[in-house]
Amino acid sequence: MLNTQTRTAASTAAPQLATMEALIVSSTDTKRFESVRRDVPTPGPRDLLVEVKAVSVNPVDTKVRDRRPGRILGWDASGIVQAVGSQVTRFRVGDEVYYAGDITREGTNSSLHVVDERIVGRKPRSLDHLNAAAIPLTALTAWEGLYEQLDVKEGGTLLVIGAAGGVGSLAVQLAKRYSKMKVIGTASRGASTEWVKKMGADHVVNHRENLPAQLKALGLDNVQYIFCCNGTDMHFEAMANLIAPRGRIVSIVEPAQPLPMGSLFSKRASFSWEFMFSKSMYQTPDIESQHDILNRVGELFDSGVLETTLTVNAGKLTPASLAEAHQTVASGTMLGKLALSL
Predict the structure, then answer these.
(1) Checking phi first, is residue 127 left (phi over 0); if not, alpha (psi -120 to 50) or beta?
(2) What's the fold here for domain 19-135+279-341?
(3) At the top level of CATH, which class does the domain 139-276 belong to?
(4) pLDDT tens-digit profile of 214-270?
(5) Is the pTM of this model over 0.90?
């Protein structure tokens, strides 16, 4: 790892090292990565400069890769604060942190990274950096989807479509273990079914088969809440069928075609999107809520309410290992999360 000791002259000073190591998307083949030296970024007034200890790969990385040749990807990290901006109030040099970052800025696949303190949380004490790096993006997405978009209530019934992935794994855990809901998760393979049960789902059904019929067999004509993590277009008809009158649906998967929203009209049901980068992208008034969410999620890990979703330790971050990790995540067969160490 690079020597990243900070200057003592000022809290805003960058490390004495002038350059850092980073992995960028190849400009000739966007399925490959290259190791380069870049200037160490200088933190802005609200920024932290973090020595990155571990990163995770998410589906968003694989989706934006082709559009970002020469750029640094990665929007999950765990590390140690090395310098702080002049207006930083939440952290000090030496603090261990974890975060999902800002898609409008350079990513975390580098030895040093700059991030706004308002979207950073304190790393859970019970998790090492590798396990912590697997959490932020999916935790923020699951929390915002459940508590900001769906506004779930304790004791309600939730259907999580695509429950075996990173977001689904935490949505199931939060809904069941934290909010005491009845949770039905969907999975399509034996291994993913067992994983969703391990996360705490009361029932697991197959999203490749007739969902309304499967829920009816469980004694459910409808559900109050639906969290869609898989194929919004594919499952919209079933969701419209299953949602209860005045129920709520949230999805994290952008559709390829316009959705037939009129099918929700007679039920007065609502549909919304969850995109955890919106707060940092648009600098929304509630941007600092992500700091609070990550701290609360960290407390839930430390108290044993939540358990790690890391299933794949992809080794050290190198051009080859990162390319392989992207291929694994893009396959659509991942259970939980994949992370790499620096």
Answers:
(1) beta
(2) Quinone Oxidoreductase; Chain A, domain 1 (3.90.180)
(3) alpha beta
(4) 999 999 999 999 999 999 999 999 999 999 999 999 999 999 999 999 999 999 999
(5) yes
